[in-house]
Amino acid sequence: MTVLDTALDPRDPAYLEGRSTTLQRLSELEAVLDEARAGGGEKWVTRHHARGKLLPRERIEMLLDQDSPFLELSPVAARGSEFPVGASVVTGIGVIEGVECVVIANDPTVDGGAVNPYTARKIRRAARIATVNRLPLVDLVESEGAAISAGIAGELSRLTADRVPTICVVFGITTGDAAYLPALSDYTIMVRGHAKVLTIHPQPIRGAANGHPGVEVRGTPVVPAGLSGPADQLAEDERDGLRLARQCVRRLNWRKQGPPPRDQRPVPPRFDVEGLLTLAAVDPAAFEPREVLARILDDSDFDEFKPGQGGALVAGWGELHGYPLGVLATPGPSGSASDAQKAVHFLHLANATATPVLFLQHAGAPRDEEADARTTAPLVHAVAKSAVPHLVLTVGNAENRVDRTDEPRFTFSWPAPGHTPADDGVIDPRDTRTVLGLCLSAVHSAAVEGAGHVGVFRP
Questions:
Q1: For the segment 325-378, what is each residue's pLDDT rounded down to a tens digit?
Q2: Which residues contact 46 (CB under 8 A, 6 or more apart)?
Q3: Would you identify the CATH topology of the domain 38-43+52-250?
Q4: How far is Cα 96 from Cα 182, in angstroms, rounded to an integer?
């Protein structure tokens, strides 16, 4: 066992300054998160509650197992655009009847839950996470938005093709692209007296087959629940609908295909996570990835791979919440040929042992485009060939991130100037171990397999 050491001194003025900088960034981020949680504002939230209806996060809380965590994805999507922060939808991963699921919930207090380009992107990302990680998908639908070319139906069709179960609960009037969600889901629950599906075209799978006429609302044909709607079950109210959804998940008899954690009671890191606040504010030249690993890996145990080769890149093995993990860490996007060779060899071994890999990178360093392309082409090829799950954590401005992977399973960043979000969100550095642990558990819902060979790694 190789226990990492740490050089951070809480009494150092630089330590305190870095901590203060990150706390200020987190305060600004929290204000944006509050804006997203507020939905359409007090007026529309009050009106929604007055109708006896639940907000999206309230629906999610009642759907999930009591006291279980919910990893919300891209909570500040659409920030800085013409659309409301949060993109009128909540997405994330939570546990239902002991099963990790992806949950998508429209926010009807924001423009009636309208689907805009950011909404579509966020939903497609959540559906893709469900597909590649083999996580059942639960849609909590209520959206009166106009139809756009969202491509949502395509992602749901992919889930069906990959035999990943989909469950849809319809709480109210649902139009546009969202109207196809009930029809494309394996199980559909509609709330009696509230759920209505409005479609311009016949629904592709379970359209009006019983000959009952639709009802005209705003000039669009409606399929009322209880007549010819695509409901498998009718709920008496929203809480009953969520109960039925939990029951559906229970009856899936779902089992993980990946191996369980090696240790069901992992030893926590030996060093205080508060130090991550300081590390989040350092510049690339001063960034030391080993300091991060000492605060997120089980028992701060890290077996470094080829420590004498490729000084800019740190590679090695550890465990996080009991799950084996490989780490490739670099202070910047560029590296030497020696670094690239070392990384290719490491990825080959990770694939040979079916070990997920965390890419930890500082995105603030200046790039040498010519040198980067010349020296790292073998690495880019190796990453593209790698079949094990990839997780990405970016320190610094995520806008400058250079992905070495075509499609990471999850991508998060720490707060930086502008809070440019990574694909799946900006997280508090102190939550890194928890977030990565939830991600590792999720990726093990699918079989964890590696590629036979990812590239040439020896001269």
A1: 999 998 655 567 888 889 999 999 999 999 999 999 887 665 555 556 666 677
A2: none
A3: 2-enoyl-CoA Hydratase; Chain A, domain 1 (3.90.226)
A4: 20
**Neighbouring residues of 268: CB distance < 8 A, sequence distance ≥ 6:** 298, 299
Residues 6+ apart with CB under 8 A from 286: none
Nearest to 422, CA basis, from 406, 410, 432 = 410
**CA dist 115 → 12, 76, 89 (Å):** 49, 16, 8
Q: How far apart are the first and last CA of the chain?
A: 30
* CA–CA gap between residue 414 and residue 417 (Å, rounded): 10
Superfamily of domain 275-443: 2-enoyl-CoA Hydratase; Chain A, domain 1 (3.90.226.10)
**Beta-ladder partners of 393:** 360, 412
For residues 38 and 110, the answer to whether their CB atoms sit within 8 Å is no
The residue with tokens 């030996």 is 270
Strands 166-170, 137-141: pairing kind: parallel
C-beta separation of 74 from 108 below 8 A: no
Question: How much of the chain is in helix, strand and coil states, percent to nearest 5?
Answer: 35, 20, 45
Q: Which two tokens stand for residue 440?
A: 């590792």
Which amino acid is residue 358, in one-letter code?
A: L
Q: Which of 67, 124, 56, 55 is nearest to 94 (CA)?
A: 67
Task: For residue 14, give the 3-state DSSP assignment.
Answer: helix
Lookup: tokens for 60: 């999610």
DSSP for 274-342, please give it: THHHHHTT--GGG--HHHHHTTTSGGGB-EESSTTS-TT-EEEEEEETTEEEEEEEESSS---HHHHHH
Q: Where are the alpha helices (DSSP H) in 94-234?
A: 117-133, 152-161, 180-184
User: How much is the pTM?
Assistant: 0.88
Instruction: Please report which helix (H) or strand (E) contains residue 361, including its range.
Output: strand 357-362
Range(s) within the chain of domains with CATH label 3.90.226.10: 38-43+52-250, 275-443
Q: What is the pLDDT of residues 130-166, one digit of tens each?
A: 999 999 999 999 987 655 555 677 777 788 778 899 9
Long-range contacts of 5-13 (CB under 8 A, 24+ apart): 5/294, 6/271, 6/275, 6/291, 6/294, 6/295, 7/288, 7/291, 8/271, 8/275, 8/278, 8/279, 8/291, 10/274, 10/275
